[in-house]
Amino acid sequence: MQLSSRRRRWKPQGSVLWGFVGFGDEIIAAGQAQHYYDTREERSVIVDLHGRPRWHPIWEGNPAIMRPTEKILPGDRRILNAPNARPYIVYPFTAESGWTFNQDFHCRDYVAKIHLTAPERSRGHYMRARYGPYVLIEPWSKHANLTWPLDHWQQLIDARPKITFVQHTHDQSPTLRGVHREPATFREACGLVASARCYIRGESGMCHAAAALAAQQIPIGGGCMDWDVMGGYPGQVGVGVTPPFCGRYLPCDHCRATMAAITVETVLAALDQMGVA
Fold first, then answer.
1. What is the pTM of this model?
2. How are beta strands 180-183 and 165-169 bridged, if at all?
3. By CB distance 3.0 to 4.6 Å, which of 152, 222, 236, 247 could disulfide with 99?
4. How confident is the model at residue 96 (pLDDT cuts 50, 70, 90)?
5. Is 51 helix (H, G, I), strand (E, B) or coil?
6. Residue 183 lies inside a defined structural domain of this protein
């Protein structure tokens, strides 16, 4: 059995904070599988801490990943990437300490592929046909330490009236002036990303999705997530990344201050760098 992991298995104990489960984590896992698929023509099964094969909806249609329902042989490659076994985190950690990032793992070395259906891709095709070339944004983040102030977002939109801004939304998304709102699930939002001129948001799982879709993007980073570990994908122009990175999961004054300090002009300069006027 081949087990792809860069550290020992870890079982959380006591008050240790369990790892966050998100789409971004599963896209990183798909990137690991894609690496072996591209370099060794091997399919992989992604397993949890107990060695059990698992599956996630963002992997639908992905030939690099074996389903748990398939016949899995002892020699098939197993990738350990699951809640509480994420390759970019050094375990253990606590809510108070935050994450320490594994400097031996870089997400940019494992670029995933997301295999969208025709209806999912059609969301972006429709928006482009209706509004022309557009810049996609999402100001909301479930992670307070990766949230750029809403007034900065409004200033960004107001500063570029010739750009068509589209926001993929859900029931917690804030409202901005001068933006076309488009409700979307995660995979539908990926379809919007795939057709956008550029995608802008705070660092999140959708940034890993944008990399998997080979989309131009501007992640707004701040001082939380280690950019050298989590960023640097092709097509990314990261702004505001401010080391040292604290890795805090709980709301943090340091992160709030670093995100607030990222100017609108910095993001506008990144747009200019990408040729989006």
1. 0.91
2. parallel
3. 247
4. confident
5. coil
6. yes
**CA dist 67 to 11, 57, 112, 227, Å?**
25, 11, 17, 31
Whether residue 101 is found in the same domain as residue 145: no
Query: Token pair of 63, please?
Result: 């030939």
Q: Are 6 and 79 in contact (CB under 8 A)?
A: no
How far does Cα 249 stand from its chain's mean position? 16
Query: Is the peptide bond between 219 and the residue preceding it cis, with omega within 30 degrees of 0?
Result: no
Tell me which residue of 76, 77, 103, 78 sits closest to 89, measured CA to CA: 103
The pLDDT tens digits for 153-200 are 999 999 999 999 999 999 999 999 999 999 999 999 999 999 999 999
Q: Is the dihedral of CA 95, 242, 238, 152 positive or negative?
A: positive
> What SS3 class is residue 106?
coil
Q: Is the dihedral of CA 246, 247, 252, 258 positive or negative?
A: positive
* Distance, CA of 23 to CA of 64 (rounded, Å): 17
Q: What domain range includes position 98? A: 7-109
Task: Please write the tens of the pLDDT for every residue from 227-265.
Answer: 999 999 999 999 999 999 999 989 999 999 999 999 999
Tell which residue, 38, 103, 35, 30, has the closest CA to residue 66.
30
- Alpha-carbon gap, residue 258 to 240, rounded angstroms: 8
What's the mean pLDDT when you consider all of the chain? 92
Cβ atoms of residues 139 and 176 within 8 Å: yes
> Do residue 133 and residue 206 come from a single domain?
yes
Find out whether 176 and 149 touch, Cβ atoms under 8 Å.
no
152 belongs to a structural domain? yes
